[in-house]
Amino acid sequence: MTTATMPVSQKDFEKAQEQLKLLKKDPGNETKLKLYALFKQATEGPCNSPKPGMLDFVKKAKWDAWNSLGNLSQDNARQKYTELVSSLISAESAGQTKDASPEESRHDDYETIIVTTKNNITKIMFNRPERKNAINHQMYREIIKALQEAGKDDSTIAVITGNGEYYTSGNDLNNFANVQPNDMEKMAKDGAELLKEFVSCFIDFPKPLIAVVNGPAIGISVTLLGLCDIVYASDRATFHTPFSQLGQSPEGCSSYLFPKIMGLAKANEMLLFNKKLTAAEACAWGLVTEVFPDGTFQKEVWERLKAYASLPKNSLAVSKQLLRSMEKEKLHAVNSQECEVLKERWLSDECLNAIVSFFQRKSKL
Ligand SMILES: CCCCC/C=C/CC(=O)SCCNC(=O)CCNC(=O)[C@H](O)C(C)(C)COP(=O)(O)OP(=O)(O)OC[C@H]1O[C@@H](n2cnc3c(N)ncnc32)[C@H](O)[C@@H]1OP(=O)(O)O
Fold first, then answer.
1. Residues pairing with 213 in the sheet
2. Could you tell me if the CB of 131 is within 6 A of ligand 1?
3. Which conformational region is residue 84 in: left (phi greater than 0), alpha (psi within -120 to 50 degrees), or beta?
4. What does UniProt give as GO cellular component (predicted)?
C-alpha cells in the first residue's frame, strides 16, 4: 500500500530505534533485514561497500538488502524505517505477529480486476462476477497493465483467478455489439491488435504464472492456460473452447500449444468440435496440473502457493525463462497468425450470426 510522504525528523528516527528494542517478539529474518537495510541507507546513504563472497551468507543477505534500496534518499529511508517500526509496534500491541507475512496490499487504478499482493504473490482476479467475469476491452487493457507491473514487482509468482462462481466466460460478446457497418473493419483491426498485445504479455511473462481456475472457464481463458506454468482447478471447473460454434478460430497460441499438450486428436475435439472438458478430463489431457475438491480448493491451493512463493525468487524466474525461451519466437509467430485469422473471422457472417443469436437469447453455450 502506498503511504503519503511525511517528513520524519532525526528525533523521530532515534525514537524508532529505541522503540524497536522494546519489541517482545522477534519480527523474523525478512523484516530484520529490511530494518537493517533502511537503517544503513538512512545513516550512510546508498550501499558502496564491496559485495561479500557467496559463502558468507549472513553478510551477503545484509548487503543484498541494503544494495536493493538503490538510490533511495536518506530522508526516505529514515521515514520508511520509522514507519516499519511503528507498524511492528502496533501489530504487537494488537496481538498480531507481523513477521514474514505482510498485510495484503491492494493495487489501485483497476475497475474490472482486483490486483493484490501478499506473501510474495501478486494475484490478478477477474472481477465482473455479475457478467460471469466476461472480458471486455477495459479488462483486456487492465490485465495487460497488471501483468506488466507484476512482472516487475517484488513478488515471486503471479496468480490469475476469478471472483465468484465463474473463472471467466471468455471474451465479452458485447465487444462486437453496437458496431456500425462502416466501423466493422476498424473494430476487427483494433480487436486483433489488442488481442495480440494481450497474449504477448502471457508469452513474455518473466516469473511463474499460475492459473487458479475456481469455476467454469470459456474461450480465451482456456487457451491461455497453455501459457501458464501451473494450472490448479476446482472440481467444479469446466473447460470449453466453442470457437466453431461462434464462427471464430483458436487464439492464445492454442493452435500450437494444445496439440503439444494433449496430442492432435484430443486438441481437435476441443478446438474444432467444441468439446467441453470436466476438470478431471482436463487434468488427464495435461491441460490442468491438479484438481481439488471445491470445498477445500481455496485453502489447499493458497497454502501450496504460499510455500512455492517462499522459494528463491531469482532461481524460479531464470528457470521459468529457460523452460519458455526455446519456444518464445515460435509462440509470438503463432500469436500473430492467430490474430490475423481472427480478424477475418470477426467480419464473417458465421461469426456475426452467432453473436446476434446470443444477444437475441437464442443461443447460450
Ligand atoms: C479484443 C477482443 C479479443 C477477442 C478474443 C476472442 C476470444 C474468444 C472467446 O473467448 S470465445 C468465448 C465467448 N464466450 C461466450 O460465448 C460465452 C457467452 N455466455 C454464455 O453462453 C452464458 O452467459 C454462460 C453459459 C457463460 C452463463 O450462462 P448463465 O445462464 O449461467 O448466465 P447468464 O447467461 O444469465 O449470464 C449472466 C449475464 O452475463 C452475461 N454474459 C455472460 N458471459 C458473457 C459473455 N462472454 N459476453 C457477454 N455477456 C456475457 C449474460 O449475457 C448475462 O447478461 P444479462 O443479465 O444482461 O442477460
1. 233
2. yes
3. alpha
4. mitochondrion; peroxisome
Q: What is the Å distance from ligand 1's center to 134 Cα? A: 6
Consecutive H or E run containing 117: strand 113-118
- The Å distance, Cα 228 to ligand 1 centre, comes to 23
Using CA atoms, how far apart are residues 205 and 124, in angstroms rounded to an integer?
13
Mean pLDDT of 225-246: 98
Phi, psi of 318 (to 5 degrees): -65, -35
Q: Phi/psi class of residue 232: alpha, beta or left (left: φ > 0; alpha: ψ in -120 to 50)?
A: beta
312-340 residue pLDDT tens: 999 999 999 999 999 999 999 999 999 99
Q: What is the ipTM of this complex?
A: 0.99
Mutation pick for ligand 1 pocket among 169, 186, 225 (CB with most ligand atoms within 8 Å): 169
**One-character DSSP codes across 335-363:** HHHHHHHHHHHTTSHHHHHHHHHHHTTS-
* 133 C-beta closer than 6 A to ligand 1: no
User: What is residue 210's three-state secondary structure?
Assistant: strand
pLDDT in tens, 80-112: 999 999 888 888 877 654 444 568 899 988 999
DSSP state of 214: -
What order do you get walking across the sheet with 113-118 strand by strand?
Answer: 105-106, 113-118, 121-126, 157-162, 209-213, 230-234, 290-292
